[in-house]
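Fold this: DNA gyrase subunit A
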Amino acid sequence: MDNTDHNNFAPVSLEEEMKRSYLDYAMSVIVSRAIPDVRDGLKPVHRRILYAMHEAGFIATKAHRKSARIVGDVIGKYHPHGDGAVYDSLVRMAQDFSLRVPLIDGQGNFGSMDGDSAAAMRYTESRLAKISHNLLADIDKNTVDFIPNYDGSESEPSVLPSMFPNLLVNGGGGIAVGMATNIPPHNLGEVIDACCLYVDNNDIDILELLSAIKGPDFPTGGIILGTNGIKSAYLTGRGSILIRGRTEIEEQGNRQAIIITEIPYMVNKSKLVEKIAELVRDKRIEGISDLRDESNKAGVRVVIEIKRDAVTEVVRSQLYSYTQLQTSFGVIMLALDNGLPKVMNLKDIISSFVNFRETVITRRTIYLLNKARDKAHILLGLRIAVNNIDEVIRIIRAASDPLQAKEQLMQRAWDIADIIDLIKLVDDKAEFTTANTCHFTEAQAKAILEMRLQRLTAMEKNKLEQDLTELAQEIADYLEILSSRPKLLGILKDELILIKNEFTTPRLTSIEEGNFDTDMEELIQREDMVVTVTHSGYIKRVPLATYRAQNRGGKGRSGLSMKDEDITTQIFVGSTHTPMLFFSNIGQVYSLKLYKLPLGNPQSKGRPIINILPLQTGETITNIMPLPENENELDNLNIMFVTSKGNVRRNDLSDFKRIQANGKIAIRLDQDDTLVSVKVCKEDEHILLATKCGKAIRFPVNSVRVFKSRTSDGVHGMRLAANDQVISMTVLKGISCTMDERQAYLSIPIENRLAIAAGADFDPQQFDVNLSKEQIINMAMLEELILTVAENGFGKRTSAYEYRITDRGGSGIVNMDLSDKTGNVVAVMPAGVTDELMLITNNGKLIRCKLESVRVTGRSTSGVILFKMEAGEKVSSASLIVDSAETEDTDINNGEV
């Protein structure tokens, strides 16, 4: 008979129970065993070993202790697992070929690069390495949270206060359930430099951090081949780094030998030698006559003697191909961030550490502040008692017992008028009765009763005052730190620099570029970007998707946020892989891929171009030109150069495919000549040059031959007067109508011409011109308006049809009627009907005006006043305004910028 009480059982889904149990197990392995914490770079077992040694006093300034003693403490108090696992972890932290900065100072046999295991724990001795004290510093100052140990009998830190980013310095590896981590070690000094850069600028780009961290720095040295694996790891958290052992070629008599002096990280040296011997035996490598390992305490030295008839470089290449003398390190920068596993890039790791240290310093400062205030509270009580010693003694003598004396001291109101300001600064526990009196607290009364009579001596009184003064200064300092984040970050940075100065060592691993390196651009995700350039030379890129994502409501978005004196002068859309050319006023050209521009948002200002390109003193960028990604498209395009002395030169755009990092000469200039403008042009277009003295010339592009040289100064585009110079170049649409047809067309009122260009219907008979309707429409569609601005604030718009087509090299025609009233011309540019103009004067004044208010007139007119100038004031610059709020929300989304 079944007597089982079925009320004690509950049905459970086997599938659900397996899921729950497996997830619990997986998270336990991830969080409590295999994955390091991003804050201190330690797994629980390593953290427990270091903390147990710290608590037991096995520090760098004391004698070594038996490793068995340490392992026993760790197992008994914090880590209830096998002693083998704990000892293996301790051993690894003492190996200078495993950790870039060993955390334990070991004495005895702690293993070797040949794979030899360490001696038993009863034979070896250990103590904390000196740098480990910086992992544990201030742990007793409430800087980190403590949690109960496995049985609740002890408490252990959930993380160490870690004063340096140990995760990057020593790296880490581990295999959890469904995930793994493999973080390479780095040079301590480089990592701290990167942290300081981040502290100075939280918006720093990852690629800028590479100016500090060159790449991993392995304790076994070696050579890293190429930088793309490094950059991939730092940008994405994943990458593969190719490492090669360091070799030298020595002459030994009449033959050569390959000497291996460094091997790749985590490679077993004895197995490497065995593999080479195996390859020789199997005749896969036939040029080796002898092989021996001469390594000792001074370092690695594996000698590979080469046969007389063998080519040493071929043998070395075979060693790289067939053995672990060249290997790869697969980077997976996965760590626990807020208790959750996360693949992090370089900036993520550094920012997490800096934020953690900021919290640690804040908690430490609060702890020290409270301690100082507690001490000041007692000293203030003694200070008041000493000032009123007669009354204190009377109360104590009259009391029947200490308890009554304490109560009466606490009930009495004491005069504090002379130290009221000091009390308010340093004592947050003072119990005020009135503005100038207070009561003793219980702690103060107890301290007074326990006060020694020697406190009444003059020396002790002075010491009491001195202690209070020092405490007041300490408390003021702590309060300043807590109220000023820059002050706190300064302390953080200073502490990092102190560690760097004391413990940093030269880099062991070198990084070499070569044909083995893959293209860096393969790491850059292809994405459409909006590039904006401001009048004062700031540039940025913003993802095109940013605008698309915020335009669905149809209200647009706020554009570039900047100072009033700056405006956006250029905007274009390109891919992250779009190449760009930057032409300077001295005739240099620089090349940059779009992804190297600073990434921003629609409201950010960007960065000055001078901080991005290696410009010389006084050199400025005059033109920025995006190029097609497909280099084959360059073959159908030309660019036209014009200098201030009127020289022009046409080149194939393909001549500028390859530009070195420091730029190259785009055009040769005379000493007193400058590059004014560079424009893309086609065979059927026209060039309009304008000068400061009011002259202009229009000629076809094909009247300038295509030059094959970049060092030529070109040919005469315009003949100039002695005091004249070219100030602008405009590329105009080509036209084929006669002069009479143009004159007939120009007799049509400008309002009607603009309306026709916009698509308005009309009757050609109403204009009394000898032109067909089709001719009028075609000419209206090709009509362009040229804006001319003079230095005394005058300006006008003129139809491009007013400028007759001539041969290049002439003296030109009148562009503007100049006089003392107008001054010289400062700007000539094509302008649309709805464009706006920004004028800047030599006094720093600005005016923004709509061009629709500037009437269209003939060439030989003076124009109208755009800006009333004061005495001595001149227009120094004129630019068309690109409305980044409107344009970016309309044209960009249509792909027509």
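Residues 346-387 form the longest helix (42 residues). Residues 548-564, 884-897 have pLDDT under 50 and may be disordered.
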